[in-house]
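Fold this sequence, please.
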Amino acid sequence: MATPFRLIDKGIFEYAEKFWKLDATDFTILKAMSIYGPRNVSLIAARLSIPRTVVDYRVKRMFEEDLVKVFAIINEEALGLESVLVYAKTPFGKEDKALKALTVHPLWRFSCLVEGALHGVIVRYAIPKGSIGELNAYLSYLKLEKLIEDYELHRAEQYYAPFPNLDFYLKETGAFKWSEWADRIIAEKEAVSLEKKPVKEIEFSWLDLYILSRLSIDARIKFTDIARKLVELKGGSLNSWKVKISQTYNKTTSRLIRGYSFYILPVAEQTSIRLLIEIHFNDKPSLAKFVNHLKEIPYPLALHPYKQESKSLLHIIIPTYELTSIIEALKKLAYQNLVKSYRVFLVNKDKVWSNVTIHQAYNKEWKFSHKILLEKLGKL
């Protein structure tokens, strides 16, 4: 899986110029890496029937020359967390204050300022299951204090992020044909069901979460480098931490990773636009057809299906000149009764963040409540 955002989001655009140094073999290796992980080079070579020496050389080149970056995607459900999307309308002039108030707790995962269908802030949280009432109470308080004017709260699945269709750049020149893409969705007779098996929670430790936080920044980081950080943070010897990290990773941490994502961007910052589009589908099968064709899109994206609703939030970066085309494609889906409605949010590219420090909210159990949120707000 691949997703366009990690850490302060500006970083992805540094990789736009480097994209054109990659070729078809690199694309194939990276796609396999998104499935098998960045450390399983021998498995990647075997599955692709490419000589191990070739894969070693390609991987070394791509990462030593910093042509791409790879990150681990945390399995939040296995940690006992659920995804919640909040759309907060903010007063003019209070956007930054609202953003700070909405991200006081380390269990927020993604945030941005938006315009268009909403003037305000969109935040995705991963909070302990059963604690949505605590978050709702806090949001009500922010509204009472006029830090936000209103808000929507939606329970969501953890996002789906297909590896971008990089083969597009080997075959095509010019814009992606959004209208033809919509036609393929309409023509599909039957889509694979989106129903998934419940994720079993895994017993974990604070150390698991800390290792995950490092891997969420760089999935190829050496355990020695993580150990150095822990010596600075907790004390102890480098070697003892290396042993603990290796044992913990093999026992539990590796099972808490859903997949891997990359900084891969074929669109320059000055000619791109970042969108969040909330799409209300006619029914679950229509949503399933839409999801089935996301893998054809050659741009980084993530889709957040809502729980118990036929709605999803699409997060995508596209060339600015394709904005009209993607909207027309959604209209075409609406004319064919696959889509009921949609809302387009224009993301401020200088105000986009994601957070990996969820370990700061854990001490033998998750620390999340209305009271804790208010205490942290008081310290701003």
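Residues 1-8 have pLDDT under 50 and may be disordered. DSSP finds 13 helices and ten strands in the chain.
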